[in-house]
Specification:
The complex is a heterodimer. Chain A is mainly alpha-helical. In chain A, a hairpin with a 5-residue loop joins β1 and β2. Chain A contains 16 helices and 4 strands. Chain B is of the alpha/beta class. Helix content of chain B is 40%, strand content 24%. Chain B is built from 13 helices and 11 strands. In chain B, α4 packs across α7. The mean pLDDT of chain B is 86. Classes of the chains: A mainly alpha, B alpha/beta. At the A-B interface, α9, α10 and α11 of A face α3, α4, α5 and α7 of B.
Chain lengths: 459, 302
């Protein structure tokens, strides 16, 4: 009985506190959104700016914020408390072990049959969008995430200019294919080598830098590459970009409607979907190559040296590890995969311009790595699907127009989605979706290393 | 080939200045093969600076640090090597290196001097086994064909890796941590971390092991275990040890030769019993009355 009284008393105090919190939050939201949403300017018919007010929208948003804060106090907070109190399971349940064992093979199997599933579900016409926008687009970012993961996740070197290497790969393919007519299969490794070269070149000046300073220099490097692409008009054609880039062929057979095209050769009816499906499998193969090489490298001395470098650079030097070479290989390897992805990107688009290689791209790729959990392959893949798939899904949410009016453009809100995803994951999982680290070698029992002792690297 | 008692390390006129501060002033001493040499002195005497100079973390302002592998006859070429401007020479199995000319990682890789740190520097997020494999990086790098053979999974690399794991297992057994081989190093208690750091340094195959205060923060039982480990490293592997230590019970019990530093100057050098009874050492550690200070200062030439 006594406990019942006590808990109800606690409940009442909670209610008061929750109401106060909600009131403060509402007030804050009102103060914040009044200038942002409450007022807006419109150009009238005489081309003059007029101040307009949007009270209904403002008050509905403020109300939503207040109600959400109340809901948090009454529903979410007690639930989180209960979770904290729940005894931590000491042994992992059997289903999780089975799940863990089959998860990766299942995912690989799914992405291999994905185009077939889509064609079966939507037919040839509808499949194009789903394979291109969702399949290829996501896989490019998965590959870029895995490439950056080598630099940031394994070696612990914070790189904010990763998109520069992507740009080098794309321009290398575009320029060499247009000027000299080399085929995609020759230029793919060549683009990788070139990006790798630039990665190592960037590596030299930043060898002695760490943390914030390294981030700033890599950021500047990314901008240098972009600005060179913009201004070196003779070679890169500046803002106008390069168009008419040769598309990859199916081992010499072009994807077109001609008599010796892919469809005619195999006795099929011509459809653009064949090229898209071919590109899908191409980027899938490249992404899997990246994953395979990274997994292999982690178990080799060079990969272990990268991780050791992230943990403690001075200790590395005391063990006879040449930290200069180790850092440069990390930069070079990461840049190489960006170069592969870049040349694929140029071949897929047929058109590239400096617009595609802005800082926002670097930030997106870095966000994917951080959200996924630094060093985790699966985490990065899941984060790429969520981030890129999420923004693509935003285009599909036409029904939102019925709620917010015709002028509402869901894609404009993708940065909001970005922000939300970041905040939520960082609150719930401060070290990314998959934050435990799998040991690269073991004697008896390959148990994952929990996150606490693992260092994030100092840049 | 290697004879106990031959000179292994020769530090000559080592001086290290940081701006106007002279941390180490004209220090000369020798360490012999198979012996445990202790470097002691009050706080701030410059012991760790000497270590950092020997292991290549600092570049000394002046002085020469020679290290010999194998036959001590090669010392006769020291002056020729110094003239030549090279970092080291090898004659058959023997080698002579000038440590002050080498960057830190080459001191470990070529001259085979390993070290530990005063504040333990393990790789806390990596398992014990991984820590010991990172220490064998250079050997494994060659075996993996600088990553190329390893990527394709050639059997020669797998053999080399198995041998490295065996070596790591052996060292984990020696330091009594084999049951925690797959745990992250950061989870170990302090005393175990100290022993793991020594095992990791030993995995680099050193001829000289430099230990910076290995007994700091250990309880008497752990300290005794450590003495045992250090003695066995010296006796079984014939590896020489250079040791910084404050714990006099450790120093007096295990070292063959003690060098005492105070304010960067060597004030005593000799067998433990000799050093223990040296009035200058006692003065440096316990302090002396003011009127005797000038006298003591005159004696040590300051």
């Amino acid at each position: 009985m006594a406990t019942g009284v006590k808990s109800s008393a606690a409940q009442r105090i909670d209610t008061v506190a929750a109401l106060r919190d909600a009131a403060i939050t509402t007030l804050l939201a009102f103060g914040l959104f009044l200038p942002l949403i409450g007022f807006h300017t419109v150009t009238n018919i005489r081309n003059e700016l007029e101040l307009d007010t949007r009270w209904p929208l403002l008050f509905s948003i403020v109300a939503v914020v207040g109600v959400a804060r109340l809901a948090y106090s009454f529903l979410l907070a007690p639930w989180l408390e209960r979770i904290k109190l729940r005894p931590v399971a000491t042994t992992t349940p059997a289903w999780r072990a089975t799940f863990g064992k089959w998860f990766v093979p299942f995912c690989i199997g799914f992405v291999i049959v994905y185009p077939a599933i889509i064609i079966a579900a939507t037919g040839f016409g509808g499949a194009l969008k789903w394979v291109d926008n969702f399949g290829i687009q996501i896989l490019i970012y998965v590959m870029l995430g895995w490439g950056l993961n080598i630099v940031v996740g394994l070696a612990g070197l914070l790189d904010l200019g990763y998109v520069a290497f992507y740009a080098v790969g794309a321009y290398a393919y575009a320029l060499l294919a247009k000027e000299f007519g080399f085929s995609f299969w020759i230029l793919l490794p060549l683009a990788g080598v070139m990006s790798s070269f630039w990665g190592i070149l960037l590596g030299f000046p930043v060898l002695r830098l760490r943390g914030d300073y390294l981030a700033i220099v890599t950021l500047a490097f990314g901008e240098i590459i972009r600005i060179v692409l913009v201004n070196w008009v003779d070679v890169t054609n500046g803002y106008a970009g390069i168009s008419g880039i040769p598309r990859p062929s199916f081992f010499g057979i072009p994807f077109n409607a001609s008599d010796d095209g892919f469809a005619a050769t195999f006795g099929l009816e011509f459809s653009p979907i064949y090229r898209t499906i071919f590109l899908y499998y191409l980027i899938l193969a490249l992404a899997l190559l990246t994953a395979f090489v990274t997994v292999r490298l982690r178990r080799l001395p060079v990969g272990r040296a990268w991780e050791a470098l992230r943990e403690d650079e001075i200790a590395c030097r005391s063990l006879g590890i040449n930290t200069t070479h180790t850092k440069l290989t990390a930069f070079g390897m990461g840049a190489m995969f960006a170069g592969f992805a870049g040349s694929f990107f140029a071949a897929r688009q047929g058109f590239i311009s400096p617009e595609s290689f802005t800082f926002l791209e670097s930030a997106t790729i870095l966000a994917i790595v951080v959200l996924g959990g630094m060093g985790s392959q699966i985490g990065v893949a899941i984060a790429a699907i969520a981030m890129i798939g999420g923004t693509e899904i935003m285009r599909e949410l036409e029904f939102l127009k019925h709620i917010f009016g015709e002028s509402f453009d869901p894609t404009q809100y993708r940065m909001l989605l970005f922000g939300f995803a970041m905040v939520i994951i960082m609150v719930l999982r401060p070290r990314g979706l998959i934050s435990s680290r799998a040991p690269s070698v073991f004697l008896k029992d390959p148990k994952p290393v929990p996150v606490d002792p693992v260092k994030q690297g100092h840049g | 080939m290697t004879n106990a008692g031959d000179i292994l390390l020769r530090v000559e006129h080592l001086t290290m200045r940081f701006g106007g501060l002279v941390a180490v002033d004209d220090l000369s001493f020798e360490a012999r093969q198979g012996e445990i040499t202790a470097l002691i002195g009050p706080n701030g005497a410059g012991k760790t600076t000497v270590f950092n100079c020997i292991t290549g973390f600092y570049k000394p302002s002046e002085g020469r640090i020679g290290l010999c592998h194998g036959d001590a006859a090669i010392w006769s070429e020291l002056d020729a090597l110094t003239e030549s401007g090279k970092r080291g020479i090898t004659r058959g199995d023997s080698g002579l290196y000038l440590l002050e000319r080498m960057p830190d990682y080459l001191v470990t890789q070529n001259a085979r001097v390993a070290r530990t740190f005063q504040n333990i520097r393990l790789f806390p997020g990596m398992t014990l086994l991984e820590n010991l494999l990172v220490a064998q990086h250079n050997a494994l790098m060659v075996a993996s064909g600088y990553t190329l053979f390893g990527i394709f999974g050639l059997p020669s690399y797998h053999r080399a890796e198995r041998a490295s794991v065996e070596k790591a297992r052996d060292w984990l057994n020696r330091v009594g941590l084999i049951h925690r081989a797959d745990d992250p190093a950061g989870d170990l208690p302090y005393g175990d971390q100290r022993r793991l750091e020594i095992a990791r340094a030993m995995c680099t195959d050193p001829v000289l092991l430099c230990l910076d205060e290995p007994a700091a923060g250990l309880n008497p039982r752990e300290s005794a275990l450590l003495n045992e480990l250090l003695m066995s490293i010296g006796n079984e592997h014939g590896i020489s040890i250079l040791l910084i230590e404050h714990d006099m019970s450790v120093v007096m019990e295990i070292s063959d030769h003690v060098v005492v530093l105070d304010y960067g100057i060597k004030i005593s050098d000799g067998a433990p019993e000799v050093v223990r009874n040296d009035p200058k050492v006692i003065a440096a550690y316990l302090g002396v009355p003011d009127h005797e200070l000038e006298k003591a200062g005159a004696e040590i030439g300051r």
